[in-house]
Amino acid sequence: MKRRYLYSWMVLFLICSGLSRVGVADDSLAVREKPFQLVRAEMCESIENYEPQYIAAAFSIRIGRISCFTAFEGVSETTYVQHRWYRRDELMTAKRLTLKPPSWATYSSIQLREDDLGPWRVEIWDAEEQLVKTLRFSIVN
Amino acid sequence: MSSPGSVHAMAFTGCDAMNSLFTFLQSIRWQDLVDVLLNSYILFRLYVLFRGTNVIRVLVGIALLWIFQRMAVALGLIVTSWAMQGIIAGAALIIVIVFRNEIRNVLQAKNLRALLWDFPQKAVRTPIDSIVEGVYELARTRTGALIVIPGKEDLDEVIQGGVTWDSLISKEMLLSIFYNGNPVHDGAAILQDHRVKRVAAILPLSLRDDLPQFYGTRHRAAAGLSEQSDALIIVVSEERGQVVVAQAQSFTPIYDNLSLKKTLAAHLGVGCEDDHGIQRERREMVIAALICLFCMAGVWFSIAKGMETLTSIEVPLEYLNRDAGMQIISTSVNTVRLHLSGSSALIGSLRPDQVKAKLDLSKAVNGQNLFPLSKGNIVLPPGLRLNRIEPPEVQVALDVPTKKELPVQVDWVGSLPDSLILESVSVTPNRVVMVGAKETLDRISTLYTAKVRLNRIDASGQLAVALAPKPGVRTGNDGPSDGRVTVRFVIGRRGGGE
Fold first, then answer.
1. A121 touches chain B (CB under 8 A)
2. Inter-chain contact A54–B494, Cβ cutoff 8 Å?
């Protein structure tokens, strides 16, 4: 009787372990589809030593230049992302930035002009044309 | 012999004329008919009330002047038309001044019914036999006499002086008036209706030099009045006892009673011609009424139709009967310009709210629709014609409303002090469901708030901010009830610390 219970537990264990292996396989597939993880994305006034300075949600036009800083981990292969800069739903510029394994930080910047006032957003897109993140901010006086 | 082409051309011209006539008849409003008929009746009543007076003659003269003035305007004779206009204005004033007595008599002596409706009856029959007998008794006794029997014209302006008598006509009365011992035997007796109205009246003397030598002052006076009026004047010569009738500038010697009776009957329109007289009067009235109608129709054509005016007006285009499940995404126009024509009076009184442009969308389908605009789309007041519509067609795009969830972003304006920095912002809810046409929603990727001024902010906090409206879309039922979102913000200091 005890032996029968033991066999039953063993079969159950094998089934569960098999299912968990299938799940791991699926996760690994998902990781392969996204060969990086975005760990940080900030709008800032400047970058110093690959560190964003004066992170904010509104920037005065007087500072003349702003940047979008992004940091990635788990970059499995060399790929790229795009920083797409929009002012009020109008695409102003798109910058392609290369990512290299295993971790990578990169940024794009724009020069501010008088008629750049208003709400902005930067969309970060991967090489598969998937939207990764959107950063929203404003250019003010 | 006409070729087939010319036959077709003639047929086309005839058809064209019929169409023009039909269009013209269609353009006549009931107000126009009332206008013409009412003014025709007023003119006819003026004729009825003033006929037999000199006012009518002057009115006819003014009417002729007005016709000349219109012709001068049509021919472009500026000075002539201006002068005619001045004369007409002056003549209207002169009528009132010169004929004030006649006008007063008409207005005072008649009641309202007489003014508006009644036809003045022909004068009560003058007793012809009494006059004939009296005249021949005067002739037989060689008693000089001057008897005036007025026609249709008024004699007040021509005859001077005299004594109001107002007695019934009889042979004896005539004999006594012209009896030598009577103080009023000199001068003329005016017989009107069945009465002796005035005696010892002074008639205007004729200046003719072709009158016979034996004609005296009585004959000259009779000639003078016959020159200036349609009256019949009987002259009985004192010296020769001869009876002479003066009428229309001519003298007719009367040798017997019968001739005088016939002459008087013909002048007064009585006797055996009674029925003819009534018929003649009725015919005269009908002709006068028709002339008044034609004159007024002419005036109406000249004023209302003659001055055809063109205008253009811009009116909003109303879209009607849209399927409730669909929404208008875009239209090529929202207003249309209508080119209209009509009389200057109608064009001048045209109000924008009297003109409407409507487009029925009951047959519109999802997507782009092209509708031609025609007269059926335009509502105009009667009497105006539509010549052209700009643009001739309208493009309308319809779509079925859909939902879309949109992120919300704060629209910051102004500036923070240099020492402060807006470190982070969060919006609740950060996404809102909007409802609208799919095509419109596809073009929208972000919902912005109303502008939020940074100048008024010096520390972290939160604000309730309205969403900026987007044309063509609205907040869904599960969106913020008051259309506001909550904005939380963190203010930091440059160099560290909040």
1. yes
2. yes
Taking the C-alpha atoms of residue B39 and residue B80, their distance in angstroms, rounded to an integer, is 27
Chain-chain contact of A58 with B423 (C-beta, under 8 angstroms): no
* Strand ranges in B169-231 using DSSP code E only, listed in sequence order: 188-192, 195-201
DSSP assignment letter at B198:
E
Say if A134 is an interface residue toward chain B (CB within 8 Å): yes
A64 Cα to chain B: minimum distance (Å): 14
- Each residue's pLDDT tens digit, A25-39: 333 334 446 788 999
Of B465, B376, B384, B375, which Cα lies nearest the Cα of B429?
B465
The pTM assigned to this predicted structure is 0.43
Inter-residue contact B142 to B179 (CB < 8 Å) = no
Q: Identify all chain A residues contacting B413, using CB atoms and an 8 Å cutoff.
A: 117, 138, 140-141
Q: Helix or strand or coil: residue B360?
A: strand
Q: Report whether B365 contacts B400 (CB < 8 A).
A: no
Count the neighbouring beta carbons within 10 Å of the beta carbon of residue B342: 24
Segment B320-373, tens digit of pLDDT: 888 887 878 788 888 999 998 877 777 877 888 889 999 999 888 888 899 999
Q: Looking at the partner chain, which of B414, B422, B444 has a beta carbon nearest the beta carbon of A57? A: B422
Distance CA A121, CA B272 (A): 114
CB B204 within 8 A of CB B217: no
Label the pairing between strands B356-360 and B308-320: parallel
For the segment B134-168, what is each residue's pLDDT rounded down to a tens digit? 998 898 888 899 999 988 787 888 888 888 888 88
SS3 B418: coil
Residue with structure tokens 């015919």? B283
**∠ at Cα A133 (B425, A38), nearest 5°?**
110
3-state SS of chain B: helix, strand, coil percent to 5?
40, 30, 30
Q: How far is CA B317 from the centre of its chain?
A: 33
In this prediction the ipTM stands at 0.75
